[in-house]
Write a structure and sequence with these properties.
600 residues, 40% helix, disordered N terminus, binds zinc ion
Length: 600
Amino acid sequence: MTTEQSAAEMLSEDVHSFARPSEAVATHLDLNIDVDFGNKVLSGQAAYQIENKTGTEEIVFDTRGLQIEQAFVGDDMEPTSFRLGTPDEVLGQPLFVKIKPDTRRVTIKYRTSPEAAALQWLNPQQTAGKQHPFLFTQSQAILARTWIPIQDSPGIRITYSATVQVPAELLAVMSASNPTEKNPRGVYNFEMRQPIPSYLMALSVGDLTFREIGPQTGIYAEPATIEAAAYEFAEMDKMLVAAEKIYGKYRWDRYDLLVLPPSFPFGGMENPRLTFVTPTVLAKDRSLTSLIAHELAHSWSGNLVTNGTWNDFWLNEGFTVYFERRIMEELYGKEYADMLQVLGYQDLRHTLEELGADSPDTRLKLDLEGRDPDDGLTDIAYEKGNFFLQHIEKAVGRERFDAFVNKYFATYAFQSTYTDTFLNFLRSELIQGDAALAEKINIEGWVYTPGLPQDFVAPSSDRFAKVAETFRSWQKGVPAEKLATQGWSSHEWLHFIRMLPEDMTQQQLTELDKAFHFTTSGNNEVLAAWFLHTIRNNYASADTALQAFLTTVGRRKFLVPLYKQLIKTPQGKEKALAIYAKARPNYHAVATVTLDELLK
Ligand SMILES: [Zn+2]
């Protein structure tokens, strides 16, 4: 079986796309859209260069909630017929466009619905500057189809160009070459020359300004946020250098960040050339920048070599967490990276408990057929994936492992890979028939078996061991204000807070808060961890801060555990519903889908 055949076969395996790329596939998109803030609608046209591989009479695109107005074929825009298939709640509707065997270009005129799940339209009050509206997209996993008719599978790659019309006082940016200044007509042109999967299509429009950080790096943010962001992310150029040292040249020209308003549902989204990032990492002390290392790492794992289906999500995230920690180790040393490993391991344990250690969703290779992929994408892909790669690294040594991963990225650059692709590459390039090594690596146990394999060794951290010592002395009666916490990073604080017992007295909470000012912390990781304790133990002094947090921050990773903790008691549930009613308009659809379900 040639690789081409197997890739084509696997393309049709994407159970989350209606597209039939082995018959007719899009290769380039020319997008031309207007951004209408008044009606919360994007309208315009998506013109595709296509390859009709089999002489088929139809090309299939994914859509969800789009109004398709007209379709054309050829450069001279000859009208053609189209139809939409039966709607599916999660997948949307296939769009069938009639083509001829020699058709090279298909143009679709369309508009989005105001409810398009990828789009979040913010009113001025929801931005940092409070003067102008703001729009951003979140296409991963299968939401690109809610704002572009597209073959929405990570196994399909396109290059694109775009022309976007926005109100003259706003700037538009995309996952592409970007403007650095507003223009008076509000028309912006973009180009993405490297082929990308659809989930990396991204657009944001707002009162944005640009600040250069290094020769290849910079930041877009609202004027009210740009100073803080430029300080926080001043080391992004160094990160890029560290990453290149490990896995070779950065392949996307520029690396810029876009700092979004707080409702952004994720920590970051690795949109190529322009990572979208939550402002909740603006801690004023550069303590949460491992998130940037993570998004940057995606420039290799995910964006360059892409998971072919969402069942292979660990190939994106496991590699990226592994690489993120390698970058952090390169920059700040092993002791620092060890702390991140332990925190990641704690998250993994928590996820295993929640899902149940024998749940099929705890396998690396997932089976998400019939489900919204977003539901099945958990810490398993990130942390278990990372620990599997670390496990291989330990088995063969870092030098050999690095050479192997470098070759993997080079071999599959700008392609999609599947779990099998990676495992075959692992067998042929690294295991090479060594039975003892194969047994040691234990593919079956790591990839296809739920939970953690027997041979798993939990990570440890010397700095956390000291935190544990400090914690024990507090338990033994040393007052909080006398504890040796000087020089602790936010990771040490987070570890300390996670060690606190479930049941605490008001006196204990007050003592800790008075000594360490957790409730007024500027660090969102610390806050979110602390609030879990204040909710559980009815510590009323934190209520106002908790409410403020939940009504401004839209990052799902923080919201879900806090709401879950709140609804454990009847009074808490009442409180949660009241806060949610007020906060919901500030959350992106990615977060409300999860929270509606939780709070229904
Ligand atoms: Zn990631």
